[in-house]
Amino acid sequence: MLTKNKPAPWTFLVGTVIWTWVFLGMTFFTGQNYLQFPTVLLTLAGGLGPLCISLTLIKLGYWDKELDKTPLQFIQRVLNPRTLESKWYLSVILLVLLLRILPILINNYLFDDVDFFAVGPAVFMVIGVLIGGMEEIGWRAYALEGLQRKVPIISASLIIGFFWAIWHLPLFFMEGTYQSQLGVGTAEFWTFHINILIGSPIYAWLYNKTGRVAFVAVLYHALGNLSGELFVNVHGINMAVELILALVLTVYSWEWMKKKARL
User: Fold this and answer.
1) Beta bridge partners of 117
2) pLDDT for 20-76, tens place per residue?
3) Considering its fold, how many domains does the chain have in total?
């Protein structure tokens, strides 16, 4: 049941998936690459689903007025880099590098050597940084904040991870996307989605550990996408390393991760 002046995380999750699937689904009928005009407009609209749904819900009154009175104030707070303590910038950068470099080192020790760098097209970097950052206005700043008040933080993170994973599904059927190159039903297809699911608790840990500063999720997502276009992706090992990190952080902080967040 929806209550005014309170977040509506379930409405956000379902609404965001529907919004994005509708717009990205329409790209199937254009016969174009997802970056060709006018298909790129549908791609952009779909990618902005988390942003649009969260702002719409806030405009309709489904948010805490004590936090933000308007959608504009919400965005200004979430995207304000000064809300994040300087020590967390270094922590996030090191964390992103660890998750990219350690899997390559493990692969090169156990199997055949691969290069560290595999620089992708500049347009992919721009899209990854901007769209990835904008996603967090919805996924963590709105949905996680609302859902972790209703269920334990770890549960909220996994629920959001599930919706976040299926939100990406249309990308596997769109011409020219990174996901379409992985294929549907392949091992890389499954590791992609599992990575999203097990990575979600890391976002929840960062968000809550920093005092519920949403900008840390924006920064972590943007840098994660950027690093994905710079370093070689060793899919299976990447997944294992991320899983271990998620488990370590969760166990280390279990006393508060197993509880609901206070209002």
Assistant:
1) 231
2) 999 999 999 998 999 999 999 999 999 999 999 999 999 999 999 999 999 999 999
3) 1
Length of the chain as a residue count = 263
Does 137 map to a domain? yes
Q: Is 1 among the domain residues?
A: no
What token pair was written down for 246? 């998620």
Domain contains 4: no
What tokens were used for 192?
A: 């992609």
Question: Crossing angle of helices 49-59/9-26, nearest 10°?
Answer: 140
Residue 3 lies in a domain: no
DSSP string, 124-185: HHHHHHHHHHHHHHHIIIIIIHHHTTTS-HHHHHHHHHHHHHHHTGGGGGSTT-HHHHH-SS
| DSSP class per residue in 96-119 | HHHHHHHHHHHHHHHS----SB--
Range of the domain at 22: 9-257
